[in-house]
Write a structure and sequence with these properties.
- The structure is a single chain.
- By secondary structure, the protein is an alpha+beta fold.
- The chain has two domains: about 1-40; about 40-88, Irregular (HU Protein, Chain A).
- The chain is about 40% helix and about 30% strand.
- The strands form two sheets. The protein has a three-stranded antiparallel sheet. Strands 3-4 form a two-stranded antiparallel ribbon.
- Strand 3 and strand 4 form a beta hairpin.
- The radius of gyration is 18 Å and the shape is elongated.
- The mean pLDDT is about 95.
Amino acid sequence: MIKADIVSKVQKVTGLSKQRAQEVVELTFESLKEALKQENKVELRGFGIFKVRDRKKGVGRNLKTGELVPLKSGKTIKFKSSSRFNKG
């Protein structure tokens, strides 16, 4: 599923115009991004929780070549799905 699929679903369910549905979806994603940039936890009940976490410095592997690649320390986003979501 891509963003356009989400826009289409919102349009069908709400009866909004395609342009308005796209604006709603964009605003939703922008709100999520802004909260995560400020390192706030984003909880979507029944779906899951997004958290910003520190990432340790280390060594990773390029999956295409198998080459070892140094990883810088920094921030990353972790997602934990809701137990209700996992039940199917």
